[in-house]
Amino acid sequence: MSHILLLNCGSSSIKYQLLDPEVGAPEAVGLVERIGLEVGTITHEVGDNEFRESRPFADHTEGVAAVVKMFQDHGPSLDDVVAVGHRTVHGGSTFVESTLVDAGVIAKLEELSDLAPLHNPPGLAGIRAAQEVLPDVPHVAIFDTAFFSTLPAEAYTYAIDQEVAKRLGIRKYGFHGTSHSYVSKEAAKFLDRPIEETKIIVCHLGNGASISAVDGGVAIETSMGLTPLQGLVMGTRSGDVDPGLHKYLVGAAGMTIDEVDTLLNKKSGMAGLCGHTDMRDVKTAIDEGDEQTQLALDVYVHRLVGYIGSYIAHLGGVDALVFTAGIGENAAHVRGPVIRKLKALGFELDEDANATRAKQAREISTPESKVRVLVIPTNEELAMAQETLAVISK
Ligand code: ADP
Predict the structure, then answer these.
(1) What is the pTM of this model?
(2) Domain ends where: 143, 174, 209?
(3) Which atom of ligand 1 is nearest to the CA of 280?
(4) Residue 144 catalytic?
(5) Model confidence over 279-328: pLDDT tens digits?
(6) CATH number of the domain within which 115 lies
(7) Using one digit for the tens of pLDDT, what is the confidence trace for 97-146?
(8) Residues 136 and 220 in one domain
(9) Among 48, 46, 54, which Cα is nearest to 72's?
(10) Ligand 1 pocket, 280 CB below 6 A?
Protein backbone atom coordinates (compact mmCIF):
# COMPACT_ATOMS: atom_id res chain seq x y z
CA MET A 1 0.00 0.00 0.00
CA SER A 2 1.36 3.44 -0.89
CA HIS A 3 -0.94 6.13 0.36
CA ILE A 4 -0.70 9.70 -0.84
CA LEU A 5 -2.04 12.63 1.14
CA LEU A 6 -3.25 15.38 -1.19
CA LEU A 7 -3.60 18.97 -0.07
CA ASN A 8 -5.35 21.71 -2.03
CA CYS A 9 -4.98 25.00 -0.18
CA GLY A 10 -7.10 28.06 -0.93
CA SER A 11 -6.81 31.43 0.79
CA SER A 12 -9.00 30.34 3.71
CA SER A 13 -9.46 26.62 3.12
CA ILE A 14 -7.66 23.29 2.84
CA LYS A 15 -9.24 20.42 0.89
CA TYR A 16 -7.59 17.07 1.45
CA GLN A 17 -7.81 13.41 0.47
CA LEU A 18 -5.98 10.27 1.45
CA LEU A 19 -5.81 7.73 -1.34
CA ASP A 20 -3.85 4.89 -2.84
CA PRO A 21 -3.47 5.68 -6.56
CA GLU A 22 -3.51 1.95 -7.38
CA VAL A 23 -6.94 1.65 -5.75
CA GLY A 24 -8.42 5.00 -6.84
CA ALA A 25 -11.26 5.67 -4.41
CA PRO A 26 -10.24 7.92 -1.50
CA GLU A 27 -10.04 6.44 1.98
CA ALA A 28 -10.69 9.78 3.61
CA VAL A 29 -11.70 13.22 2.36
CA GLY A 30 -11.95 16.44 4.29
CA LEU A 31 -12.11 20.18 4.32
CA VAL A 32 -10.84 22.89 6.65
CA GLU A 33 -12.81 26.09 6.18
CA ARG A 34 -12.64 29.67 7.43
CA ILE A 35 -8.92 29.66 8.23
CA GLY A 36 -7.94 32.97 9.84
CA LEU A 37 -11.50 33.84 10.85
CA GLU A 38 -12.99 33.85 14.33
CA VAL A 39 -14.29 30.28 14.11
CA GLY A 40 -13.30 27.72 11.52
CA THR A 41 -14.55 24.20 10.86
CA ILE A 42 -12.95 20.95 9.86
CA THR A 43 -14.97 18.13 8.33
CA HIS A 44 -13.38 14.70 8.00
CA GLU A 45 -15.15 11.85 6.18
CA VAL A 46 -14.11 8.23 6.42
CA GLY A 47 -16.50 5.92 4.58
CA ASP A 48 -20.00 6.80 5.79
CA ASN A 49 -18.74 8.47 8.96
CA GLU A 50 -18.41 12.23 9.16
CA PHE A 51 -16.50 14.00 11.94
CA ARG A 52 -16.85 17.73 12.37
CA GLU A 53 -15.21 20.22 14.72
CA SER A 54 -15.49 23.99 15.01
CA ARG A 55 -12.70 26.13 16.43
CA PRO A 56 -10.36 28.86 15.27
CA PHE A 57 -7.52 28.01 12.87
CA ALA A 58 -5.20 30.99 12.92
CA ASP A 59 -3.32 30.02 9.76
CA HIS A 60 -2.56 27.14 7.38
CA THR A 61 -0.10 25.60 9.86
CA GLU A 62 -2.89 25.22 12.42
CA GLY A 63 -5.19 23.98 9.66
CA VAL A 64 -2.78 21.27 8.52
CA ALA A 65 -2.12 20.29 12.17
CA ALA A 66 -5.88 19.88 12.60
CA VAL A 67 -5.99 17.62 9.52
CA VAL A 68 -3.27 15.39 10.98
CA LYS A 69 -5.08 15.32 14.34
CA MET A 70 -8.30 14.20 12.61
CA PHE A 71 -6.42 11.27 11.06
CA GLN A 72 -4.92 10.42 14.48
CA ASP A 73 -8.30 10.58 16.24
CA HIS A 74 -10.57 9.00 13.62
CA GLY A 75 -8.24 7.23 11.21
CA PRO A 76 -7.16 5.98 8.82
CA SER A 77 -3.54 5.95 9.99
CA LEU A 78 -1.09 8.20 8.17
CA ASP A 79 1.70 5.67 8.79
CA ASP A 80 1.46 4.35 5.21
CA VAL A 81 1.71 7.81 3.64
CA VAL A 82 4.66 7.77 1.23
CA ALA A 83 4.32 11.36 0.03
CA VAL A 84 2.23 14.51 0.23
CA GLY A 85 1.01 16.02 -3.06
CA HIS A 86 0.30 19.74 -3.14
CA ARG A 87 -1.93 21.31 -5.76
CA THR A 88 -0.09 24.41 -6.94
CA VAL A 89 -1.92 26.75 -9.26
CA HIS A 90 0.83 28.61 -11.09
CA GLY A 91 4.14 27.08 -12.14
CA GLY A 92 5.00 29.97 -14.48
CA SER A 93 7.65 29.09 -17.06
CA THR A 94 9.79 27.61 -14.29
CA PHE A 95 7.89 24.42 -13.54
CA VAL A 96 6.90 22.33 -16.54
CA GLU A 97 6.23 19.16 -14.54
CA SER A 98 5.39 17.96 -11.04
CA THR A 99 8.38 18.59 -8.82
CA LEU A 100 9.84 17.34 -5.55
CA VAL A 101 9.78 20.25 -3.11
CA ASP A 102 13.08 21.45 -1.65
CA ALA A 103 14.33 24.83 -0.43
CA GLY A 104 15.17 25.90 -4.00
CA VAL A 105 11.68 25.04 -5.21
CA ILE A 106 10.13 27.00 -2.36
CA ALA A 107 12.26 30.03 -3.22
CA LYS A 108 11.14 29.85 -6.88
CA LEU A 109 7.50 29.45 -5.85
CA GLU A 110 7.85 32.61 -3.76
CA GLU A 111 9.06 34.47 -6.83
CA LEU A 112 6.04 33.18 -8.78
CA SER A 113 3.56 34.47 -6.21
CA ASP A 114 3.49 37.80 -8.07
CA LEU A 115 2.01 36.00 -11.11
CA ALA A 116 -0.74 34.33 -9.07
CA PRO A 117 -1.23 36.51 -6.01
CA LEU A 118 -4.59 34.95 -5.14
CA HIS A 119 -3.63 31.31 -5.58
CA ASN A 120 0.06 30.66 -4.98
CA PRO A 121 0.59 32.16 -1.49
CA PRO A 122 -1.97 29.82 0.16
CA GLY A 123 -0.42 26.87 -1.69
CA LEU A 124 3.01 27.84 -0.39
CA ALA A 125 1.66 28.25 3.13
CA GLY A 126 0.19 24.75 2.85
CA ILE A 127 3.50 23.28 1.68
CA ARG A 128 5.39 24.91 4.55
CA ALA A 129 2.79 23.83 7.10
CA ALA A 130 2.72 20.25 5.83
CA GLN A 131 6.52 20.01 5.81
CA GLU A 132 6.49 21.10 9.44
CA VAL A 133 3.84 18.60 10.50
CA LEU A 134 4.94 15.72 8.23
CA PRO A 135 8.72 16.23 7.99
CA ASP A 136 9.66 12.63 7.22
CA VAL A 137 7.91 12.18 3.87
CA PRO A 138 8.66 13.79 0.49
CA HIS A 139 6.42 16.65 -0.65
CA VAL A 140 5.56 17.09 -4.31
CA ALA A 141 4.17 20.20 -6.03
CA ILE A 142 1.71 19.51 -8.87
CA PHE A 143 1.09 22.44 -11.17
CA ASP A 144 -2.18 23.41 -12.87
CA THR A 145 -0.11 25.00 -15.62
CA ALA A 146 2.35 22.13 -16.32
CA PHE A 147 0.29 20.26 -18.96
CA PHE A 148 0.25 23.45 -21.06
CA SER A 149 4.01 23.99 -21.05
CA THR A 150 3.93 22.33 -24.51
CA LEU A 151 1.86 25.08 -26.14
CA PRO A 152 3.61 26.35 -29.28
CA ALA A 153 4.94 29.92 -29.11
CA GLU A 154 2.30 31.21 -31.53
CA ALA A 155 -0.39 29.95 -29.14
CA TYR A 156 1.07 31.28 -25.89
CA THR A 157 2.40 34.63 -27.11
CA TYR A 158 0.20 37.69 -26.61
CA ALA A 159 0.46 40.30 -29.35
CA ILE A 160 1.82 42.98 -27.04
CA ASP A 161 5.21 44.73 -26.70
CA GLN A 162 7.55 41.76 -26.40
CA GLU A 163 10.04 43.62 -24.21
CA VAL A 164 7.31 44.11 -21.61
CA ALA A 165 5.98 40.58 -22.09
CA LYS A 166 9.37 38.93 -21.61
CA ARG A 167 10.41 41.11 -18.68
CA LEU A 168 7.20 40.36 -16.77
CA GLY A 169 6.57 36.77 -17.88
CA ILE A 170 3.33 37.75 -19.64
CA ARG A 171 2.08 34.86 -21.79
CA LYS A 172 -0.68 32.29 -21.87
CA TYR A 173 -0.03 29.62 -19.23
CA GLY A 174 -3.34 27.72 -19.07
CA PHE A 175 -4.88 26.10 -15.98
CA HIS A 176 -6.85 22.95 -14.98
CA GLY A 177 -3.94 21.06 -16.57
CA THR A 178 -4.22 18.03 -14.31
CA SER A 179 -7.81 17.54 -15.42
CA HIS A 180 -7.16 18.14 -19.14
CA SER A 181 -4.24 15.70 -19.04
CA TYR A 182 -6.16 12.99 -17.16
CA VAL A 183 -9.33 13.31 -19.23
CA SER A 184 -7.54 13.31 -22.59
CA LYS A 185 -5.76 10.08 -21.58
CA GLU A 186 -9.04 8.53 -20.42
CA ALA A 187 -10.63 9.57 -23.73
CA ALA A 188 -7.90 7.79 -25.71
CA LYS A 189 -8.54 4.67 -23.60
CA PHE A 190 -12.26 4.98 -24.31
CA LEU A 191 -11.54 5.26 -28.04
CA ASP A 192 -9.22 2.24 -27.63
CA ARG A 193 -6.45 4.04 -29.51
CA PRO A 194 -2.89 5.03 -28.60
CA ILE A 195 -3.10 8.64 -27.43
CA GLU A 196 -0.25 9.50 -29.85
CA GLU A 197 -2.72 8.88 -32.70
CA THR A 198 -5.60 10.97 -31.36
CA LYS A 199 -6.80 14.55 -31.71
CA ILE A 200 -8.97 15.44 -28.72
CA ILE A 201 -10.76 18.56 -27.49
CA VAL A 202 -11.52 18.62 -23.76
CA CYS A 203 -14.17 20.95 -22.30
CA HIS A 204 -13.61 21.20 -18.55
CA LEU A 205 -16.81 22.94 -17.46
CA GLY A 206 -17.04 23.48 -13.70
CA ASN A 207 -17.37 26.72 -11.78
CA GLY A 208 -14.15 27.61 -13.51
CA ALA A 209 -14.17 26.49 -17.15
CA SER A 210 -11.52 25.94 -19.78
CA ILE A 211 -11.09 24.08 -23.06
CA SER A 212 -7.99 22.49 -24.52
CA ALA A 213 -6.84 21.05 -27.84
CA VAL A 214 -4.68 17.96 -27.37
CA ASP A 215 -2.79 16.58 -30.37
CA GLY A 216 -1.27 13.15 -29.86
CA GLY A 217 -1.36 13.63 -26.08
CA VAL A 218 0.32 17.05 -26.30
CA ALA A 219 -1.59 20.24 -25.46
CA ILE A 220 -1.44 22.75 -28.32
CA GLU A 221 -4.08 25.30 -27.26
CA THR A 222 -6.13 26.22 -24.22
CA SER A 223 -8.51 29.00 -23.31
CA MET A 224 -7.21 30.25 -19.95
CA GLY A 225 -4.29 32.63 -20.12
CA LEU A 226 -1.87 34.52 -17.90
CA THR A 227 -4.58 34.08 -15.27
CA PRO A 228 -7.67 31.84 -15.08
CA LEU A 229 -9.85 34.78 -16.15
CA GLN A 230 -9.42 34.39 -19.92
CA GLY A 231 -11.57 32.26 -22.21
CA LEU A 232 -14.96 30.70 -21.63
CA VAL A 233 -17.92 32.13 -19.72
CA MET A 234 -17.66 30.76 -16.16
CA GLY A 235 -19.71 30.75 -12.96
CA THR A 236 -18.63 34.22 -11.85
CA ARG A 237 -15.79 35.04 -14.30
CA SER A 238 -16.35 36.87 -17.57
CA GLY A 239 -13.83 35.01 -19.70
CA ASP A 240 -12.90 36.97 -22.87
CA VAL A 241 -13.77 40.66 -22.99
CA ASP A 242 -12.39 43.58 -24.98
CA PRO A 243 -9.12 44.56 -23.20
CA GLY A 244 -10.27 48.17 -23.74
CA LEU A 245 -13.04 47.55 -21.23
CA HIS A 246 -10.69 48.12 -18.29
CA LYS A 247 -9.80 51.67 -19.33
CA TYR A 248 -13.42 52.45 -20.05
CA LEU A 249 -14.56 51.28 -16.61
CA VAL A 250 -11.71 53.07 -14.83
CA GLY A 251 -12.03 56.26 -16.87
CA ALA A 252 -15.68 56.75 -17.76
CA ALA A 253 -17.23 54.78 -14.91
CA GLY A 254 -14.75 55.88 -12.23
CA MET A 255 -14.01 52.40 -10.93
CA THR A 256 -10.65 51.47 -9.39
CA ILE A 257 -8.66 48.73 -11.13
CA ASP A 258 -9.35 46.47 -8.11
CA GLU A 259 -13.08 47.04 -8.57
CA VAL A 260 -12.74 46.12 -12.25
CA ASP A 261 -10.87 42.96 -11.25
CA THR A 262 -13.60 42.04 -8.75
CA LEU A 263 -16.30 42.78 -11.34
CA LEU A 264 -14.68 40.47 -13.92
CA ASN A 265 -13.75 37.67 -11.49
CA LYS A 266 -16.64 37.63 -9.02
CA LYS A 267 -19.64 39.43 -10.51
CA SER A 268 -19.54 38.35 -14.14
CA GLY A 269 -19.99 35.11 -16.07
CA MET A 270 -23.32 33.39 -15.41
CA ALA A 271 -23.69 35.30 -12.12
CA GLY A 272 -23.44 38.62 -13.93
CA LEU A 273 -25.58 37.55 -16.86
CA CYS A 274 -28.52 36.08 -14.96
CA GLY A 275 -27.77 35.84 -11.24
CA HIS A 276 -27.40 32.04 -11.26
CA THR A 277 -24.01 30.34 -11.04
CA ASP A 278 -25.33 26.78 -10.78
CA MET A 279 -26.46 25.22 -14.07
CA ARG A 280 -29.27 23.40 -12.23
CA ASP A 281 -30.73 26.80 -11.25
CA VAL A 282 -30.18 27.98 -14.82
CA LYS A 283 -32.28 25.08 -16.11
CA THR A 284 -35.07 25.70 -13.60
CA ALA A 285 -35.24 29.40 -14.50
CA ILE A 286 -35.28 28.66 -18.25
CA ASP A 287 -37.99 26.04 -17.77
CA GLU A 288 -40.00 28.74 -15.98
CA GLY A 289 -39.62 31.00 -19.02
CA ASP A 290 -36.93 33.40 -17.74
CA GLU A 291 -35.60 35.08 -20.91
CA GLN A 292 -32.55 36.70 -19.29
CA THR A 293 -31.36 33.28 -18.10
CA GLN A 294 -31.94 31.84 -21.57
CA LEU A 295 -29.75 34.64 -22.96
CA ALA A 296 -27.07 33.79 -20.36
CA LEU A 297 -27.02 30.15 -21.49
CA ASP A 298 -26.97 31.26 -25.13
CA VAL A 299 -23.89 33.41 -24.45
CA TYR A 300 -22.24 30.49 -22.63
CA VAL A 301 -22.94 28.11 -25.53
CA HIS A 302 -21.97 30.66 -28.21
CA ARG A 303 -18.54 31.19 -26.63
CA LEU A 304 -17.93 27.47 -26.25
CA VAL A 305 -18.95 26.66 -29.84
CA GLY A 306 -16.59 29.36 -31.12
CA TYR A 307 -13.66 27.84 -29.23
CA ILE A 308 -14.50 24.31 -30.40
CA GLY A 309 -14.60 25.42 -34.05
CA SER A 310 -11.32 27.24 -33.66
CA TYR A 311 -9.65 24.24 -31.99
CA ILE A 312 -10.81 21.89 -34.75
CA ALA A 313 -9.05 24.22 -37.18
CA HIS A 314 -5.87 24.33 -35.04
CA LEU A 315 -5.84 20.53 -34.69
CA GLY A 316 -6.60 19.98 -38.38
CA GLY A 317 -9.57 17.78 -37.50
CA VAL A 318 -10.71 16.09 -34.32
CA ASP A 319 -11.48 12.52 -33.24
CA ALA A 320 -13.33 13.23 -30.02
CA LEU A 321 -14.91 16.13 -28.17
CA VAL A 322 -14.99 15.43 -24.44
CA PHE A 323 -17.12 17.03 -21.72
CA THR A 324 -15.98 16.87 -18.11
CA ALA A 325 -16.31 18.48 -14.62
CA GLY A 326 -19.54 19.41 -12.82
CA ILE A 327 -21.34 20.99 -15.79
CA GLY A 328 -19.73 18.90 -18.52
CA GLU A 329 -20.59 15.66 -16.74
CA ASN A 330 -24.10 16.58 -15.63
CA ALA A 331 -25.70 19.35 -17.65
CA ALA A 332 -27.40 17.81 -20.72
CA HIS A 333 -29.05 21.21 -21.32
CA VAL A 334 -25.59 22.71 -21.90
CA ARG A 335 -24.07 19.87 -23.96
CA GLY A 336 -27.18 19.56 -26.14
CA PRO A 337 -27.21 23.03 -27.73
CA VAL A 338 -23.42 22.97 -28.16
CA ILE A 339 -23.47 19.73 -30.18
CA ARG A 340 -26.57 20.70 -32.16
CA LYS A 341 -24.83 23.92 -33.24
CA LEU A 342 -21.87 21.87 -34.52
CA LYS A 343 -24.03 19.81 -36.90
CA ALA A 344 -22.49 21.49 -39.95
CA LEU A 345 -19.10 20.10 -38.85
CA GLY A 346 -20.47 16.56 -38.78
CA PHE A 347 -21.46 16.28 -35.12
CA GLU A 348 -24.58 14.17 -34.49
CA LEU A 349 -26.00 14.12 -30.97
CA ASP A 350 -27.67 11.00 -29.58
CA GLU A 351 -30.44 12.85 -27.70
CA ASP A 352 -31.32 9.88 -25.47
CA ALA A 353 -27.72 9.20 -24.50
CA ASN A 354 -27.26 12.91 -23.74
CA ALA A 355 -30.34 12.95 -21.51
CA THR A 356 -29.33 9.81 -19.59
CA ARG A 357 -27.49 10.44 -16.33
CA ALA A 358 -24.57 8.15 -15.51
CA LYS A 359 -21.40 8.30 -13.48
CA GLN A 360 -19.13 6.40 -15.86
CA ALA A 361 -17.44 7.44 -19.11
CA ARG A 362 -19.88 7.30 -22.01
CA GLU A 363 -20.58 8.34 -25.60
CA ILE A 364 -23.37 10.79 -26.47
CA SER A 365 -22.95 10.99 -30.26
CA THR A 366 -24.67 8.70 -32.76
CA PRO A 367 -22.70 6.09 -34.78
CA GLU A 368 -23.13 8.42 -37.82
CA SER A 369 -21.38 11.33 -36.09
CA LYS A 370 -18.06 12.25 -37.77
CA VAL A 371 -16.70 13.24 -34.36
CA ARG A 372 -17.26 11.12 -31.28
CA VAL A 373 -18.66 13.07 -28.34
CA LEU A 374 -17.78 11.68 -24.92
CA VAL A 375 -18.64 12.47 -21.32
CA ILE A 376 -15.74 11.47 -19.09
CA PRO A 377 -15.70 12.13 -15.34
CA THR A 378 -12.59 13.98 -14.29
CA ASN A 379 -10.69 12.85 -11.21
CA GLU A 380 -8.14 15.48 -10.40
CA GLU A 381 -7.30 13.91 -7.05
CA LEU A 382 -6.51 10.52 -8.57
CA ALA A 383 -4.46 12.20 -11.29
CA MET A 384 -2.55 14.22 -8.69
CA ALA A 385 -1.93 11.13 -6.56
CA GLN A 386 -0.59 9.29 -9.62
CA GLU A 387 1.67 12.25 -10.40
CA THR A 388 2.95 12.38 -6.82
CA LEU A 389 3.76 8.68 -6.86
CA ALA A 390 5.48 9.00 -10.24
CA VAL A 391 7.71 11.84 -8.96
CA ILE A 392 8.86 9.97 -5.84
CA SER A 393 9.40 6.76 -7.85
CA LYS A 394 11.83 8.45 -10.28
P1 ADP B 1 -15.38 23.46 -9.38
O2 ADP B 1 -14.53 22.24 -9.09
O3 ADP B 1 -14.83 24.36 -10.44
O4 ADP B 1 -15.87 24.18 -8.18
P5 ADP B 1 -17.31 21.52 -10.37
O6 ADP B 1 -16.56 20.84 -11.44
O7 ADP B 1 -17.59 20.78 -9.11
O8 ADP B 1 -16.71 22.95 -10.06
O9 ADP B 1 -18.72 22.00 -11.00
C10 ADP B 1 -19.66 22.66 -10.22
C11 ADP B 1 -20.81 23.09 -11.12
O12 ADP B 1 -21.34 21.94 -11.79
C13 ADP B 1 -21.99 23.66 -10.38
O14 ADP B 1 -21.84 25.04 -10.14
C15 ADP B 1 -23.12 23.39 -11.34
O16 ADP B 1 -23.23 24.48 -12.25
C17 ADP B 1 -22.70 22.17 -12.11
N18 ADP B 1 -23.47 20.96 -11.76
C19 ADP B 1 -23.23 20.08 -10.77
N20 ADP B 1 -24.18 19.11 -10.76
C21 ADP B 1 -25.03 19.40 -11.76
C22 ADP B 1 -26.23 18.79 -12.28
N23 ADP B 1 -26.73 17.69 -11.75
N24 ADP B 1 -26.83 19.39 -13.33
C25 ADP B 1 -26.34 20.51 -13.88
N26 ADP B 1 -25.23 21.13 -13.45
C27 ADP B 1 -24.59 20.59 -12.40
Answers:
(1) 0.95
(2) 143
(3) 25
(4) yes
(5) 999 999 999 999 999 999 999 999 999 999 999 999 999 999 999 999 99
(6) 3.30.420.40
(7) 999 999 999 999 999 888 888 788 889 999 999 999 899 999 999 999 99
(8) no
(9) 46
(10) yes
